[in-house]
Amino acid sequence: MLTKPIIEVINVAKRFGSVEALTDISLKIMQGRVHTLLGENGAGKSTLMKILAGIYPPSSGQVLLYGQPMLFLNPEQSRRAGIAIIYQELSLSRNMSVAENIYANQEPQRFGIINDKRLLKNASALLEDLGIMLDPAQPLSNLSMAQRQLVEIAKALSYPSQIVIMDEPTSSLSDNEAEILFKIIAKLKKQDKAIIYISHRMSEIMQISDDISILRDGRFIKTLQKDKCDINELIALMVGREMKDIYPPKIHKIAAETALQNQAILEVNNLHKQDVFNHISFNLHEGEILGFFGLVGAGRSDIMKALFGMAAYTGEISIKGKLVKIRHPYDAISQKIAFVTENRKEEGLSLAHSILNNINGVNFKQITHKTGIINRLKEIEIAQSAILKTSIKTSSMDELAGNLSGGNQQKIVLAKWLESKPHILILDEPTRGVDVGAKYEIYKIMRTLAASGTAIIMISSELPEVMALSDRLIVMREKHIVKQFDQMQGLTQEMIMFFATGVHSNKTNKRTS
């Protein structure tokens, strides 16, 4: 291992107008090691990585690569220097195939004509080498968010590189898919490559990190070796205070036996869509959090899209005992259903619009006069209240949603739907890309809503999260419901994974039916 850093950041600062996003950041990244950056949303992690990737120039300070000063004026210069980056927000095209996305702008050509056969062969070889089981000819639009994230990983690693930056690469992945990434990381370390890793999942940070640097409010706090620190110390350094309990206690405990005896607010009977989800039946009661868990491709998100009118289905949906037909999101909204999608960038937000406009996007009845003219004061009042309630970090409600960190964007999506005062709230990966402090705030909101009678469906790929927050838990595998747990007490991760995978945890690889 080299005694000198492969890349060094010295007193780097970045200002956007009067806002100082980074202040005098200094880091040393060694080859053959995973260097994790830890910090709350808005701490400056992604801004620093975009400087290394050539998207932003630093306002001051310098970056040394192998001891030589470097200034990347565009992403191409950064790539040529051997820096690859996996972005938190996907940079893929839905109308292109997996192979075309992986090799975009570096397709095999002859006389200016793309060699499609060679393109598919190269992509297939790369995916196989990385352990990613995807068809390179498949359109990206057919893939789940987790599968798209794996394509994003393959795309970044298709470039020759010595430094690989991973910005929230597991935010859309369940445990099984995350293991694929961890194997890739182990391989990169053996090749003496440096990995800069950003994540909010504390368990995986402690699993794969060698060095951990903490940023807070755009400033460097401390670098620690993983073996010489613990999770509580890291959280305290990150948020500037101790957080003894990651999951807030229930405000009102739901007795599952009693809930099951009462009239359900939502009843789903034999919901079906060929090759997407098969004969799904479950119910949901007021004041409970019903968890959904399963691996990528299990069909969880597709069911929720059907409930929100985003996908056709057969079967029956009843709300408060009355049969309803939901063909369009407008039908769902009129039934007081809200849906916080896992894909906030494409389905949850208008990134080119302000925070104010996004928050009021589904609440026009609240902010308009009978004449149809928007009540500007009411619009501002609702936005201000929502920003406070969900702790969105912003200098102004007129700031564009696209300028905010991923975690704060997620809070805008949540705030928007909370203003519609839903009776049924569907949360699909609600803490994706969100730091531990912001997660706690979202969890508190969920607890408060449940205590007030809101019925919540929560999808999460983080097993400890879905276990800690759910009153009941549904496990899916291969587009079917395979198990429903009506009691969470005594439930273990191994028990849940047994049903989610169909494989015993004792490594006998014996499958369940």
Structure, described:
The chain has 513 residues and is α/β, with parallel strands linked by helices. The longest helix has 16 residues, at 175-190. The model is unreliable at 505-513 (pLDDT under 50). The protein is built from 19 helices and 22 strands. It is globular, with a radius of gyration of 23 Å. β16 and β17 (322-324) form a beta hairpin.
Describe the secondary structure blueprint for this structure.
Elements: E1 7-16, E2 19-29, E3 34-38, H1 45-52, E4 60-65, E5 68-70, H2 75-80, E6 83-86, H3 98-102, E7 109-110, E8 113-114, H4 116-130, H5 145-157, E9 163-167, H6 175-190, E10 194-198, H7 202-208, E11 211-216, E12 219-225, H8 231-239, H9 256-261, E13 266-273, E14 277-284, E15 289-294, H10 300-307, E16 314-319, E17 322-324, H11 329-334, E18 337-340, H12 344-348, H13 355-359, H14 364-367, H15 376-390, H16 406-418, E19 424-428, H17 436-451, E20 455-459, H18 463-469, E21 472-477, E22 480-485, H19 493-501
Parallel strand pairs: 3-10, 3-11, 6-9, 9-10, 15-20, 15-21, 18-19, 19-20
Antiparallel strand pairs: 1-2, 1-4, 4-5, 7-8, 11-12, 13-14, 13-16, 16-17, 21-22
